[in-house]
Write a structure and sequence with these properties.
Helix content: 40-55%
Largest sheet: 9 strands, mixed
Strand content: 15-25%
Radius of gyration: 17 Å
Number of helices: 9
Shape: globular
Order of helices and strands: HEHEHHEEHEHEEEEHHEHE
Oligomer: single chain
Strand order of the largest sheet: 4-3-5-2-1-6-10-11-9
Structural class: alpha/beta
Distance between the termini: 21 Å
Length: 247
């Protein structure tokens, strides 16, 4: 099966045939500071459409920090589990916005939620989600893992493993992993490649520790790249994009 997947990837000129893209909620709000900037969502949808048209199979996990962040709510006195559930609902709104943008870009997409809400979207059922991906649809996973105390980074790694993805790509505002924030420290060191253990030992703020450990235990590469430059997703799929690979 691995040989068949590799052959499929090579036939389309892609280093990764099936990829899970992790988008933060902040990526959807643009420069507005809150909410959803549909111009930005449309641009992200065009990037995903370009990848799909090149032969890639794409799944997406989207965060909700542009609308509500559970940790922030808990810090202000809200009970943590309640705050996390509110954050999960925020991811559903973002997922629906992205689905709409993808459909406008002529790319079939489905939102599947870990929290059942049948009047809004499908509930997450693994075989059904796999069928959607194999049929060429972009599957957008909403509501995280469906459980409080777990981040959408962990949800992204979990869904990538469940969907037999060859890698998880985390879209950020910088072109990889640095030892400090390059937007604040001009001398920040950038890494081209890292090991899972190194990320955990250095406490590099790429993804939370649970997500990195899950990727390590399943041999899943994590690619960190910038979503700010249009077309970067396809470059990452082809192995030509500037990024940090954790494996």
């Amino acid at each position: 099966m691995a040989t068949e997947e590799a052959a499929g990837a090579g036939a389309t000129g892609l280093g990764y045939k099936r990829l899970l893209l992790k988008l933060s909620g902040e990526a959807l709000m643009g420069k507005s500071g809150f909410g959803i900037d549909m111009d930005v969502v449309d641009r992200l949808a065009r990037d995903i459409a370009e990848a799909v048209n090149a032969g890639a199979e794409i799944a997406v996990v989207v965060g909700g920090g542009n609308i509500f962040r559970g940790l922030a709510g808990a810090a202000k006195g809200m009970e943590r589990a309640t705050a996390d559930y509110m954050g999960m609902l925020a991811t559903v709104m973002n997922a629906l916005a992205l689905q709409n943008a993808l459909e406008n870009a002529k790319v079939p997409a489905r939102v599947v939620s870990a929290i059942p809400m049948p009047t809004v979207c499908e509930s997450y059922i693994r075989p059904k989600a796999l069928q959607h991906i194999e049929a060429g649809r972009v599957v957008i996973f909403a509501a995280g893992t469906g459980n409080p105390f777990f981040t959408t980074d962990t949800a992204a790694t979990l869904r990538a493993v469940e969907m037999d993805c060859q890698a998880v790509a985390k879209a950020t505002q910088v072109d990889g992993v640095y030892d400090s924030d390059p937007r604040r420290n001009p001398d920040a060191k950038r890494y081209d490649r890292l090991g899972y253990a190194e990320v955990l030992a250095r406490d590099l703020k790429v993804m939370d520790g649970t997500a990195i450990a899950l990727a390590r235990d399943n041999g899943l590469p994590v690619i960190v790249f910038s979503i700010e430059e249009p077309g970067n997703l396809l470059k990452v799929l082809r192995g030509t994009g500037r990024a940090t690979v954790i494996e």
